[in-house]
Known about the structure:
Blueprint: E1 5-8, E2 19-22, E3 38-39, H1 42-47, H2 49-52, E4 58-62, H3 67-78, E5 82-87
Parallel strand pairs: 1-5, 2-3, 2-4, 4-5
Amino acid sequence: MQDFKTININDLGQLGDVNVIDIREADELSVGAVAGSKHIPMMGLIMNKDQFLNKNETYYIYCAAGGRSYQTCSLLADAGYNVVNLDGGYSSYRG
Length: 95
């Protein structure tokens, strides 16, 4: 099992231009999204990771509250991807 970092979603603004992936379901997007994030639902990302991700890049992943992004990061890190879990999810985002 590979490790991955977890940072607070509100620390995104300090990172500059990074790859941010929103893994919420389509019906959850009505409340908004992190500017510049790419929407790929959790199961689509997990099942098609090679289609969406490059092992030479780092991806910052969020969901609504942090549980699904943590699980997704664990699976992706185990598969050799560089991922960072955005703790708190969109529900705590103040961007």
